[in-house]
Amino acid sequence: MRWPCCKLPPRDWGHSFRPASRRPLGICRVTIYDFPPPLGTNRHENDIHAALTRLECNGIPQRAIAFYGSSSFCLWRAMAEDLGSLDVVNLGFGGSTLLSAMYHMDRLLLPLNPVKIVLYFGENDIANDGLAAASTFTHFLALREEIAKWLPEVHVFAMSVKHSPARWPFADEVDRYNGLRAGWCNARTDTTWIGAGAGLIGENGRPTSHYFLPDLIHMATVAMLSGRKHCESPPDCSDRP
Fold this sequence. Notes:
This protein is an alpha/beta fold. The protein has helices spanning 45-58, 71-74, 79-83, 98-103, 105-109, 123-127, 133-150, 171-186, 221-228; strands spanning 18-19, 30-31, 65-69, 88-90, 116-120, 155-159, 191-194.
């Protein structure tokens, strides 16, 4: 049964309804649950459950190499096969940001106890959440610090954020973010910078659309493999420490 816009349902339903404050023009609503603040931690929860289910079904490799990132990893369905390593574990989840990466670390990353971690975060921070390069870089440093705190012996590979046709208006901010991370990573021995994506830029200096899926944001698998050839320092997916 549908209730009129500004009337609360009867209280004999047994639910604890709490009306929110009235809005202008007499519009009101009923709040059933107290939702968490929109920090990007509760988006695409299905991808989190899917990753956990894969780990439960397939088991955890003894020397796991974790690819921890956003939908650019999540949509790479044949990652282990394409990279030729059974130790590769895809922990990508769609819509993720650096904040959500920290939020879900104890559920996804830490139980894996990986020997290496490949990170891809920051694209949604800038394009979806409207953050500047400096703020996104600050969140990256916070994530790296958390990894160092709980997994101090693990070497981390930080991938550059790609340019895509649909998100070209954010290109300058992405370049600044990549530059900040590249300089920081290159000054360290525990974090390796992976400058990927040069092969995706056409002669006119813009992303070439045929490398991308129809949404013009995510790369096709063949483009991922092609881009791997252009990595300044591709991740070593062998079982060596």
